[in-house]
Amino acid sequence: MTDASALALAAEEGASGYAEQTSWRVSEIDPAKTAERAVETAVRTRGAHELEPGSYAAVLEPYAFGELLLYFAYDAFGARGLIEERSFATGKIGEKVFDERFSLADDPLDPRGLPKAFDFEGTPKQRVELVEDGVLRDVLWDRRTAHEAGDGQKSTGSAPPASVRHWGPLPFALSVAGGDAESAEELAERVGDGIYVTRLHYLSIVNPREGVITGMTRDGTFRIRGGKIADPLVNLRFTVAVPELLAELHGLTREPTLVNETSFYDERYPNGVLTPALATARFDVTGIGGGPGT
User: Fold this and answer.
1) Which H/E stretch holds residue 175?
2) How many CB atoms lie within 10 A of CB 274?
3) 199-221 residue pLDDT tens
């Protein structure tokens, strides 16, 4: 399988912006357009202001939400954590745990992503419905965890590379169902007052059972005022419980973006998260960092 990516970071002291494109079709990659978007964002970040810690409504671009979702999914949607009773999914299969607007699958056959036919055990891959209309439906399985579970459980074709097999099955093709908003700007209108986040980094899992993750925003964080993306903000420290973030949504954009995740702990394995932008009622800011470009 082939894959191509254009990752653009435009940065100087006091300004930074990011954009990317990823596809298995090289013809779909436009490096110049990607760089232009990064520069446009960077220009808007000059003169960033600080923000008081607190809970804010927020719009998360696909780059930001895709990264956050992936960290959550490593523990929440793998059978190893379920079997060992240390994941968010423990005891919750079949329960409504998220906003009904949120549906999630692991779909390695979707041509909009980076499709693959088999996992690292040679098992054919398949689409797995993880969350339907806010209801937790299933987790991912490989042969080992399926055997441990017994009761006729089958592999879903989700075995990872041998170097990280001890982690159990992992999501390499997360796909979030789109919503009804035409753009992230429309989501900002729905939020009214809050923050707009382009991208995240320094993510760390604090409590896998509760889905608590901490990290920093970067490369384009803005205040939302009166439904408009307004003045730029410095990088923000956040700590969020992803289930709480997903419990009350203002909406999602209609069209998804493939967020690049090709590097996986020294293994180059082309994969990504197919997700729209998302607006949540709760995003907890706990502190501030440096300005854009630092």
Assistant:
1) strand 174-176
2) 23
3) 999 999 999 999 999 999 999 99
Nearest to 291 by CA among 56, 18, 51: 51
SS3 assignment, position 140:
strand
Q: Which amino acid is at 94?
A: G
- What is the residue type of 267? E
By three-state DSSP, how is residue 186 classified?
helix
pLDDT digits (tens, 9 = 90+) for 73-121: 999 999 999 999 999 999 999 999 999 999 999 999 999 999 999 999 9
Question: What is the DSSP annotation of 224-245?
Answer: EETTEEEEEB--EEEEEEHHHH
Asked if 195 contacts 250 with a C-beta cutoff of 8 angstroms, the reply is no
Which sign, positive or negative, has the C-alpha torsion 227, 235, 269, 79? Answer: negative
pTM: predicted TM-score of the whole model, two decimal places: 0.95
Q: What angle do CA 153, 155, 159 make, to 5 degrees?
A: 145
